[in-house]
Amino acid sequence: MGIGSGSEGQVTVTDMDIIEKSNLNRQFLFRPWDVQKPKSSVAAKAAKAINPSFNVVCHENRVGPETENVYDDAFFESLTCVFNALDNVEARTYMDRRCVYYRKPLLESGTLGTKGNVQVVLPDITESYSSSQDPPEKAIPICTLKNFPNAIEHTLQWARDSFEGLFCQPAQNANQFLTDLKFVERTLKQQGAQPIETLLIVKKALVAERPKTFEDCVAWARREFQDQFHNQISQLLFNFPADSLTSSGQPFWSGPKRCPKPVEFSVNESMHMDYIVAAANLKAACYKVTGTRDVETIKKIVEAVKVAKFVPKSGVRIATTDAEAEALGSQSDVDVSDLKKSLPDPKSFGTFKMTAVEFEKDDDTNFHMDYIVAASNLRATNYGIATADRHKSKLVAGKIIPAIATTTSVVVGLVCLEFYKIINGCCGIESYKNGFINLALPFFGFSEPIAAPKQKYMDKEFTLWDRFEIEAMRDGQEMTVKGLLDYFQKEHKLEVTMLSQGVTLLFSFFMPADKKEARLAMPVTQAVETVSKRKIPSHVKALVLELCCNDPDGEDVEVPFVKYIFKH
Known about the structure:
The protein is of the alpha+beta class. About 40% of the residues lie in helices and about 15% in strands.
């Protein structure tokens, strides 16, 4: 198209990912010899080969709060337009917020198999990407996952949940407990049994199940195997024997309910050892303990592990419906005061921190997919479900719908057509089109973008693109919190009842009088740093402040956010 090819032109592309073999079937710039190379640099080099005058800068950064020192005010203000070609909603909404803040056009697009869409986001004209949400995906019922799976998709989802519950969430909770003095107090303010469960997980992670050696990790994995694939199944059969009947006289184990059987562990079963090797190494990774891939070494350790014989318990309740599962999940017999006393002292851990293992499906060396495949297939064996190979397991567990070059090409073409309109200065909303396609039908649908919804305070209309821009410095001094409140009273006839910056509450009408007086006297940036207990990064030149306001009649009114500019 010639974009970025003039003397003043430039395109910046960033992607932290590397090229996988599976990317080749939907891309035009990657070749087999590019596998394992950075996506952005390979794409930039290939594009420059097509058009040598193309000025492209490639980065390998994740775009998010941690790189705002790179993609700062100067960077965004220099842009004509932003193109999103992302693979998750979190990254899309983040870029959407940045484009709204800097008032930059955004061309958002995506593909899903034969489906594709393009959305045009224009300052002052359209709604933003975050203004609407897709309906949530249909979830598998809780009791099906926990006790009554009947398809490999159920056991794979169970394995993914197990992965999060064993190797990610405990580490995240434990690290918060170790670094946040008010973590316990804040956790206990939550409703239901979840806060108790969270603190029990912390205690288990830092005390009962904290390994010192890799042998400890292997022993833990062996006991976890016994609990998940033998003991829990045996308890389920104790509660509901194979010949048990429902209240209506029908067999309990019928229809979608498959009667399970416990798995007896054997070091000679490759699937059993796959689970032990993966689980032990992932446990080791959480605690920065050196692991090993040597199966024979791990076998010798496993054979020395003593496993208690299972004895079924009376009085154990097992949910048979989602309603029962929710009811059981909200109950806890643990005494809160005893639990608080039994928690370890965070200071005794010094600088120790756990590592939260974030699931990554594409790295075959990290044991993530090894664990998912083994755990899912063992669970499937429990319930007589046909097992799945690694390829199918990766597709389902990673929620992968294979992409195809045909869809990519159509979506890219539609994005480029909308960009022609932006650079040619088309200003009416009727000039632009959001696109929706499904090549399998085939279906091509186009609609005008939805206009930015208008809101009103007093007699003034505003949209999500509007903001109050306030210069912090007045006569050589920064505005205080009181000065900011007085400004809104005088200039806009708005009484500010609450002032916040992100999750930091700077001022509220219900603050104690002495605290309110001290806060009002502080410069705004000092108030932000004092309350958040964090320095404002040096690259930040303006703060986003949110207001709750009353109009002259004392009625609550919605108002735009404040862009508080304290550096130039």
